[in-house]
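Hi V.,

You were right to ask for the full record rather than a summary. Here it is.
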Amino acid sequence: MKTIKNYFLLFILTYVVVVFTKYLFLFNIESHINYKLIIAVLEGYKFDFAVSAFIALVTTLLDFNKRVFVYFSSLLVSFVFIFQISDILYFMDSSRHIGYEILDVFVDAKSLLQTAFSKYTTLFIPSLIFTILLFLLLKKVLNRFTQSVNIGVYYFLSKLFLIIVSIFFIRGMFQHIPLNPWQSNQVGNPELAKYLLNGTYNAVYSSINSKKKLKPYSFKHPKNENIPDLYHENNNSLSLPIIKSKPNIVFFFLESWSGALLKSYGGKFETTPNYDRLLKKSLRTRFMIASGHRTTEGMFATLVSFPNPLGKSVAKTQLQNYHYKSIIDILDSLGYSSAFFQGTSKETSGTGSLAQNLGFRKSYGKRDVKKRIYENNYWGVHDVDLYNFVFEKLQNPLKEPFVIGINGATTHDNKIPKAIKPIHFSDNKALNKDLNALHFSDYALGKFIQEMIKKYPNTIFVMFADHCGGNVKGSLKNYLIPFAIYSPLIKPKYHNVIISQRDIAPTVLDLTVGNYKKIAPNFTGKSLVSDDDFFADYFYSGILGWIEKSNLIEINLATNKHNCFHINNFDKEKISCDSAYLKLKNKALSFTYITQKLLFDANTTSFKDYKGR
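Predicted structure:
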């Protein structure tokens, strides 16, 4: 009985710590707290019980030695607390719980800690202090209430009983399937689902399953006849390509540039004057929808014009090793030289290796940049130094025509160089730091493009964010990113449409190579040059968002329930659903099912068979 009492004491203590941190999560993420949110935290008890049971089982295996048991238990529960706090910081930056990215922690541990200290000081420092106090408090409580046990028959029978009890909790109690993080979405409300799940369970589940093959998301879907409705256009009257001179192409994967922070997309402050100026001279749209929250997700959707696995990246999974025909492959076959440049480490989230998997011949990271004007930030070299390094490589080994991808590091952090005087944008210190980093990144962008046009006038510049950064609230705004294609070779034109990152490659092909419908019929995106009707999608917390014109439907894939919205400027307004929205739902589910199936079957080049042409 003593070992059982020790188990449930640890179980209760861990549960209290987890729930406490989930309420910290709630109060840090939400600006307005209501009764539904408070209850939603408690409704995630299955995930909280699972973590508590796992910790209690591991620690009570050592309760034959009370001193070791007390110390180890206090240490492990304190670790759960600090990990939960880390999940809050991660969610504030990426709008999702720590999952498969947990395996990248050790690669970028130093950068992560420095960023947490700099960007979220008011949460990070008190949490460290509280962790120490919690450890001491736990030791005191456990010393007083745990009981020494003797090893014998009853001891081993008790352990067997506790293993069975732990399995019961870890499996999710009374249910026929093991507890899976996606079950948090069964609450039916995507805004509540994230509060049910705790980061520790999500991370442990992801790490345990990391060596297993990534599996497609399972959901109800209609038949495939809805897909041809998305590709009914066939404009053959254009003479393509638009630019006949085989131009150089520069893809700017503008790190964490959230459209909501730019004046051109409804932001309050003049953070990006150079981009805003170039935007007016560009091929542009209302805004673009990002295909994920990681650079690798933005890269895949952009270069392959295909959706990511829902809520995940192909990077570091079996999917990365499949064959894809990317725009870089197409350009390579036409004699383009290529390279990918990033201001962070090439190993960060597997970005460098994925870039080369998708066709770039060369890949460079922060360690390759030897000449620097400014000191590093916590993640890598500033954009000015990275762009100077790009100029070096354009002279050797690259040659014209070239296609390059650039992913900076200035906005991967909020730390600008000491020599740069910060601007007062906002009284919110954290936001002000983010806006200054964005402003400095914009300075580097404007300077680079100006110098590039002088040296390489036969060049087009494709500007868009790889994904949104932090300090942005709301599902739609968490995917709203800037987009512009600028070149003196292209006539400026505004398209009053909302597009996806998947539409970049078809548009660039129409501009530079020829009719994308013939060159890359497997692309799922559409072209601003030769198409008129567009659709965009995003996925978060089990919710599939689908946009056509100003209509948005969000579908809970776990319950098949949906909500409908009208997009007004850069925000969404909830409206009642009619039959037109049900047609959007069917198209969304058909498209998502087929693209996910083809992706996991290593058969993305067969998507053309579903277009109905």
